[in-house]
Design goal:
The chain has 276 residues and is mainly α. Helix content is 74%, strand content 0%. It is built from twelve helices and no strands. Helix 1 crosses helix 12. The two termini are 20 Å apart.
């Protein structure tokens, strides 16, 4: 298992160093008052992303591979998917450089979607909580503001109809469209989500992997490195976006971390078809 173990230790080290840098990035913003929604949401959503990263590191096998360690592949894959989907929200709301009018539109859409989901959850459990009226009021105000926003008038009638019916989507662009704007290979992104989701949703593929899973076997070591690799790419991409927003208020970045980010962001952009 020597080669596989060595590769895992390299990936684990890269992820750990990038995670440490990400924590330092958050700490550097301490005491700073965010300038508008873009900075405010960037700090909060990036913080959530880093929390997922910390949890993933804690659940990942130690590089020394102690014999009494639990290797929980499904939980690792679930956390990795959560981290990547957090990146998607971060990029949509804050990282992508768009005009302020469009950013305001995106935030309204994002908020309305969340409140509608909250209302539906309360409906499904038959809640009579007094806060429901507040949720309803938020929905009415957000929908009115969103429908009167100039960007909404440019949307297809079917999309506007969803907003009017209370079925507001989370994003107004498909993942492939968002990827194109962010210079992410859409096929690679889709493959990553599909792979991680097989464990999140307990697809037969994930069960077959579990049947053959024996901690410390070379193939299992490789499988445990996969979520770390996926997350290096998206966390690295996020730190670059954060630097565009918060520069010069950024921590120093080591050559190792800079090279890791460059390598994995390049994979995000080009994908892995025809490699290896």
């Amino acid at each position: 298992m020597t080669d596989t173990a060595t590769k895992y230790r390299e990936v684990y080290g890269e992820f750990s160093a990038l995670l440490d840098y990400s924590v330092a990035l958050i700490e550097t913003q301490s005491g700073h008052t965010p300038n508008g929604d873009r900075e405010s949401y960037a700090e909060k959503i990036f913080g959530k992303m880093v929390c997922h990263g910390i949890s993933l590191k804690r659940l990942s096998p130690s590089p020394s591979f102690p014999s009494n360690e639990l290797w929980d592949i499904s939980s690792n894959y679930a956390i990795a998917r959560a981290l990547i989907e957090t990146y998607e929200a971060l990029a949509y709301v804050s990282l992508e450089p768009v005009e302020e009018g469009e950013r305001a539109f995106r935030i309204l859409l994002w908020k309305l979607h969340a409140e509608e989901r909250r209302r539906e959850m309360l409906r499904l459990i038959g809640s009579n909580h007094p806060g429901i009226s507040e949720v309803e009021s938020k929905i009415v105000n957000l929908r009115s503001e969103l429908l009167s926003h100039p960007n909404t008038s440019a949307l297809e009638a079917a999309f506007r109809g969803k907003i009017e019916k209370g079925e507001t989507p989370l994003y107004h662009l498909s993942r492939a469209e968002r990827d194109s704007r962010l210079k992410i290979n859409p096929d690679y992104h889709r493959a990553v989500i599909m792979h991680l989701s097989s464990h999140v949703h307990t697809h037969p593929f994930s069960i077959y992997q579990l049947f053959d899973f024996n901690a410390s076997d070379p193939e299992c070591v490789r499988l445990m490195s996969v979520p770390l690799q996926y997350c290096i790419a998206f966390l690295g991409k996020a730190t670059l976006g954060m630097s565009d927003i918060f520069s010069p208020r950024m921590p120093p970045r080591s050559d190792q971390v800079s090279q890791t980010i460059e390598n994995w962001v390049n994979i995000l952009a080009k994908g892995v078809k025809g490699v290896g």
